[in-house]
Amino acid sequence: EIYRNQGDKELWKNTLETGFTQFPESESIMIGLINYYIENQEDPGRLFELLHATQEVNPDNASLYYVEGNVYKQLGDIDNAAACYKKAGQVDPNYFFGPFGLGDLYYQKAIDIQAQASDEVDDNKYFALIKELDETLGKAIAPFEQAFAMTQDKELQTVVAEYLKNIYFRFRTKSDDYQQKYEFYNNFLK
Asked: 20 to 30 Å CA-CA from 70: which of 25, 33, 37, 106?
């Protein structure tokens, strides 16, 4: 931590790696190394090794699968990210960030697709992207609904409600159910 606070990345990393070699079962050293690699966006392969080693030592820690999902998300690997977020929810069904991470993954992917669509000049490609956008947003609904229902924390509910309000707004003309869901989340946010 001293090396970290001094901004000496090399000594920070080397100290943690040495500690991990000597004490491979130390969860605090593993977490320190994971945080190092995440913070410095360095060597994803090593980061995955550490995450998997930590998961073996502590398989009931849902946050480790959530962190792994975040790394895959940063790397653009949507399928593995989704699998990790789902695993986090399986490991601990009360872990809010499992379904939230999955919903956010699909929501952010939809935003990327929307940006692509806005730049597309070919009508056929544009409409294919809009279809993909709607399908991807649709995938975000169930995990966001689950996350909203599983917490009583108003701040977390507000974040999730904002996402759901936006999704249901887009789909509100498709059915009365979507319109009612839009109104519910819109009213919740008031």
From this structure: 25
Residues 163, 86: Cα–Cα separation, whole Å: 19
Nearest to 97 by CA among 121, 73, 70: 70
Nearest to 52 by CA among 36, 34, 39: 34
Helices (H), 92-153: 97-119, 123-150
Say how many residues make up the chain: 190
User: Would you state the structure tokens that stand for residue 147, as one six-digit string?
Assistant: 């996350």
Alpha carbon distance 71, 44 (integer Å) = 8
Nearest to 146, CA basis, from 76, 89, 67, 62: 89
Residues near 30 by beta carbon (within 8 Å), at least 6 away in sequence: 20, 50, 53, 54, 57
How far is CA 37 from its chain centroid?
Answer: 17
pLDDT tens sequence across 40-99 = 877 778 878 878 888 888 899 998 899 899 889 988 899 999 999 999 999 999 999 999
Contact 164/138 with Cβ under 8 angstroms? Answer: no
SS3 content of the chain, % helix, strand, coil (to 5): 85, 0, 15
111 phi, psi to nearest 5 deg: -60, -40
